[in-house]
Design a protein that fits this description.
164 residues, alpha+beta, Alpha-Beta Plaits, four-stranded antiparallel β-sheet, two-stranded antiparallel ribbon, disordered N terminus
Length: 164
């Protein structure tokens, strides 16, 4: 039997996740008015994906939106991954990618290169820095001639407030 301090509950929302303690005064109940069809689709998504329960998914959505807002405002440092699939036979493309990496050496943390077939390569570049700079670097890389597909994922570096 797990003994917890008074006014504390043990929370386990997803099988396999660690249990954590939450002080009751930290939890606020909120109600939402949502179209029944939308709620049904949301519940199906939760069930199919194993995301937990409505409350946990809503907390994740809220945290994500708050992080997006902070990203857009440029308040904190950020990280990004830029995934590129490109034709390695395209003249000077690899050299251009290397030049961009060297020009932004303080933002480029790492890269991964994989040969997909005789003509195509996958490059994943990890960036860290100011949001505006990361977006510019990502757009520059994805816009190079010979890049067949490019996608960037941006995240703000979590703060102590995010960890609550």
């Amino acid at each position: 039997m797990l003994l917890l301090p008074r006014n504390t509950v043990s929370v386990t929302n997803v099988p396999g996740r660690n249990t954590r303690e939450v002080t009751m005064s930290e939890v606020v109940r909120a109600s939402l008015s949502i179209d029944s069809d939308l709620m049904s689709r949301f519940d199906q998504l939760i069930e199919r994906s194993g995301l937990g329960n409505r409350s946990e998914v809503m907390r994740d959505l809220i945290r994500g939106r708050l992080m997006d807002e902070a990203w857009d405002s440029g308040e904190d440092g950020a990280v990004a991954t830029v995934t590129l699939i490109y034709d390695h036979e395209r003249r000077r493309l690899t050299r251009q990618m290397e030049d961009i990496g060297h020009a932004h050496h303080s933002e480029v943390m790492s890269s991964l290169h994989i040969h997909l077939d005789h003509h195509s390569c996958l490059e994943v570049i990890v960036l860290r820095g100011e949001p505006k700079n990361l977006r510019q670097i990502a757009n520059h890389l994805m816009g190079l001639k010979g890049v067949l597909h490019g996608q960037a994922v941006f995240c703000r570096v979590p703060t102590n407030e995010d960890r609550r």
